[in-house]
């Protein structure tokens, strides 16, 4: 990170700072106008708040720098131009954007030859609080810079009766993003608009996977524009937009509250690029900025700068900053990330990580070292006092034993796999040498590169116990570097749709999924067993759980796919539980703490296993948590897996139905899951055995309360009776009886009957 120049006032928030497209000028929107000799105040319009500034390009590039427009809340615009000959900013002219003197400008942007703003209209006397939320409109004016000044066209209202929007220009499109300062209970905040000022067409989007809710429309009334989407609004729950940045070609970068960085393409498709570590946004505050430079995404979250490859989502670099920074694009150097902080303006240069090459000299030195070690090994075990040298060993002189040893070494060094191992060792030795000579600034990069090389080397061959302990120590001492190495070595990628992919050779998966060693301690709740040597799979799960917990179930699925193909490969592992080979899901569960704070992850891991016992365990956890909607989803999903599992799930849920009424909304689904071999007798026996003690003697036809009734069971019993070949008459009266008891006879008739009996 190279410092260019400094001393921006720390009293101003970075969100109030603007930089000119050529990077030559910094404009700060100051909350209070204070005269200062070191800065030029461009404001002449008194104490009216400044909304934003825009940069209007010259009609001819040779005319010089862009014209600066300062937009005030009352609609007044001051146009300024920097004149090199006079070494300062000079006012060109002042104009009004709005037609109404009572109107207010809430946001503004520059798009092609239009100036676009969101205007707040004064509320009418009869308007209520709901109507006041929709008193904004989107306006535009054509704008042109010429020698005499700036020319503006007439005001045209493109959209009215809309909520407050932030206008963001990207290429020939303008995105209208909801202002999060508004009432969050408004359903329309779930969507945002893409508008083409040239064609006056709108598209309705949301930050969900399926983004286009309404295709191109020329409707100018906001309420009618979103009327067709009202039904969908109640079914979606998109993430909040925490940050955004236009790409300049019609696309828009979005930072969502889930931690995902996405890009909205001009065709409406939503592409996920990178997922921040969990809780990163909440832990780092709200200050963030993001930009794309060529194919590199730069993202600042608090005091951390991330550099991401947009093609594959790989994290290239993570840089700690002393202060929070604001990214911007300099049109004169659009390939280099540039950042403004309170201490100055910086250019981020991506240094290539150390990647030493295998030279002839280093190769010869390593071969020499191999022969020297062989000489020492021979001398320690030889009875002869004659010293064996490398030259004699290479020539094959002296006795038969050195001749055989030399032949073995030559055969070893000629092997292709050996050359690869030697190359890895040379790279490691060169990196270690570079670390000794490196400065403090470069030491971190060398350390990360060394960790990645070591992990890659250890996973490229069979892991003995000593190497496994060494790998464990690397993960313990350098957890962050190890996490980065995992992503690089395994090529882990998340597509944003809940799927994880990895492109590595089968041999590497063989090492990762190697069976559990019987000498290791693998009790549940491994979080309490610090510094214990664990297999590679558990190591990877621990790292994923620490830095990206939401990836853990997806990684288990990925590992099971590789393990599932064992019947077709030579490295198959038995899926039967034994002391030497636990199921992968049980091995993944060992990384979760015992306190139960991550039970949602435990449920996901159990369900990912697709094993009957694990599925039932997950179902019981959900039942204990009263997550009835998830219970119904799990039952519907896994009852088709096998008849035995179907029956076990059905009985478990029928027991719950017998005890309370929380499953009433899902009874229709539950009855469809009834196994073929269930009879009316077995169903009633299960219900009676599981009735709460307090309702054993209650009225079976109660219409209210928490206990089950015959009316609730009637559809199930009818379905089962119809399925039986010989329906039993024993239950016919139950099915034919009404769901409510018959009406009580009038009391007068009963009295008359008693009197008649008395007369007799």
Automatic annotation (TrEMBL):
Short name of one Pfam family for this protein?
HPS6_C
Known InterPro entries for this protein?
BLOC-2_complex_Hps6_subunit, HPS6_C, HPS6_N
Which Gene Ontology biological process is one annotated for this entry?
Answer: lysosome localization
**Domain (BLOC-2 complex member HPS6 N-terminal) ranges:** 10-348
Q: Which domain of life is it from?
A: Eukaryota
> Locate the BLOC-2 complex member HPS6 C-terminal domain: which residues?
368-747
GO cellular component entries: BLOC-2 complex; lysosomal membrane
Q: PANTHER family given for it?
A: BLOC-2 COMPLEX MEMBER HPS6, HERMANSKY-PUDLAK SYNDROME 6 PROTEIN
Its protein name is HPS6 biogenesis of lysosomal organelles complex 2 subunit 3
């Amino acid at each position: 990170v190279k410092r260019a120049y400094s001393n921006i006032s720390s009293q101003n928030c970075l969100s109030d700072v603007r930089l000119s497209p050529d990077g030559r000028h910094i404009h700060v929107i100051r909350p209070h106008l204070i005269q200062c000799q070191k800065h030029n105040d461009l404001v002449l319009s008194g104490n009216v708040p400044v909304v934003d500034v825009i940069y209007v390009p010259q009609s001819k590039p040779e005319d010089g720098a862009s014209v600066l427009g300062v937009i005030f809340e009352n609609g007044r615009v001051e146009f300024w131009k920097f004149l090199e000959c006079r070494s300062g900013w000079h006012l060109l002219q002042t104009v009004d954007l709005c037609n109404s003197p009572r109107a207010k400008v809430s946001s503004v942007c520059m798009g092609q030859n239009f100036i676009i703003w969101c205007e707040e209209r004064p509320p009418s006397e009869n308007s209520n609080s709901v109507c006041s939320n929709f008193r904004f409109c989107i306006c535009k004016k054509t704008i042109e810079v010429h020698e005499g000044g700036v020319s503006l066209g007439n005001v045209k209202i493109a959209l009215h009766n809309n909520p407050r929007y932030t206008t963001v220009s990207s290429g020939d499109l303008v995105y209208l993003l909801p202002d999060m300062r508004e009432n969050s209970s408004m359903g329309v905040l779930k969507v945002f608009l893409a508008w083409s000022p040239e064609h006056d067409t709108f598209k309705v989007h949301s930050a969900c996977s399926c983004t286009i809710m309404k295709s191109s429309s020329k409707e100018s009334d906001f309420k009618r524009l979103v009327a067709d989407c009202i039904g969908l609004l109640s079914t979606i729950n998109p993430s909040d937009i925490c940050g955004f940045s236009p790409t300049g070609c019609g696309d828009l970068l979005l930072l969502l509250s889930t931690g995902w960085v996405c890009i909205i393409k001009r065709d409406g498709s939503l592409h996920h690029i990178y997922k921040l570590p969990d809780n990163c946004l909440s832990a780092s505050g709200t200050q963030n900025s993001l930009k794309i430079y060529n194919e590199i995404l730069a993202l600042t979250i608090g005091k951390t700068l991330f550099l991401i490859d947009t093609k594959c989502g790989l994290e290239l670099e993570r840089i700690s900053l002393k202060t929070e920074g604001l990214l911007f694009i300099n049109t004169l150097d659009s390939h280099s990330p540039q950042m403004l902080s309170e201490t100055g303006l910086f250019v981020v240069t991506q240094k290539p990580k150390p990647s030493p090459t295998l030279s002839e000299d280093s190769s010869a030195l390593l071969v020499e070292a191999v022969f020297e070690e062989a000489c020492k090994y021979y001398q320690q075990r030889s009875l002869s006092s004659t010293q064996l040298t490398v030259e004699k060993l290479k020539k094959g002189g002296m006795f038969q034993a050195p001749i055989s040893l030399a032949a073995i070494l030559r055969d070893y060094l000629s092997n292709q796999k050996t050359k690869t191992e030697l190359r890895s060792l040379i790279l490691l030795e060169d990196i270690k040498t570079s670390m000794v000579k490196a400065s403090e600034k470069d030491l971190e990069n060398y350390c990360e590169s060394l960790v990645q090389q070591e992990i890659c080397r250890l996973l490229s061959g069979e892991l003995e116990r000593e190497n496994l302990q060494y790998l464990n120590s690397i993960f313990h001492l350098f957890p962050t570097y190890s996490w980065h190495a995992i992503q690089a070595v395994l090529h882990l990628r998340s597509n944003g749709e809940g799927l994880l992919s990895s492109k590595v050779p089968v041999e590497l998966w063989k090492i990762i999924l190697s069976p559990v060693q019987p000498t290791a301690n693998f009790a549940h709740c491994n979080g309490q067993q610090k510094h214990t040597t664990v297999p590679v799979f558990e190591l990877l799960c621990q790292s994923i759980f620490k830095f990206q917990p939401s990836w853990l179930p997806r990684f288990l699925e990925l590992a099971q796919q590789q393990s599932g193909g064992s019947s077709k490969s030579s490295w198959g592992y038995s899926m039967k539980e034994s002391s030497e080979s636990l199921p992968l899901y049980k091995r993944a569960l060992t990384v979760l703490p015992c306190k139960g704070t991550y039970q949602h992850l435990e449920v996901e891991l159990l369900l990912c296993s697709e094993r009957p016992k694990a599925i039932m365990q997950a179902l019981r956890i959900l039942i204990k948590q009263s997550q009835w909607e998830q219970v119904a989803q799990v039952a519907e999903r896994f009852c088709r897996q096998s008849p035995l599992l179907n029956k076990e799930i059905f009985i478990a849920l029928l027991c719950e139905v017998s005890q309370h009424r929380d499953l009433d909304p899902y009874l229709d689904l539950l009855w469809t899951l009834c196994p073929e071999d269930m009879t009316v007798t077995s169903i009633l026996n299960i219900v009676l055995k599981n009735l709460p003690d307090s309702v054993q003697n209650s009225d079976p036809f109660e219409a209210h309360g928490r206990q089950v009734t015959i009316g609730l069971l009637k559809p199930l019993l009818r379905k089962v009776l119809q399925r039986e070949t010989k329906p039993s008459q024993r239950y016919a009266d139950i099915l034919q009886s009404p769901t409510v008891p018959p009406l009580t006879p009038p009391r007068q008739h009963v009295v008359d009957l008693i009197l008649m009996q008395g007369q007799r």
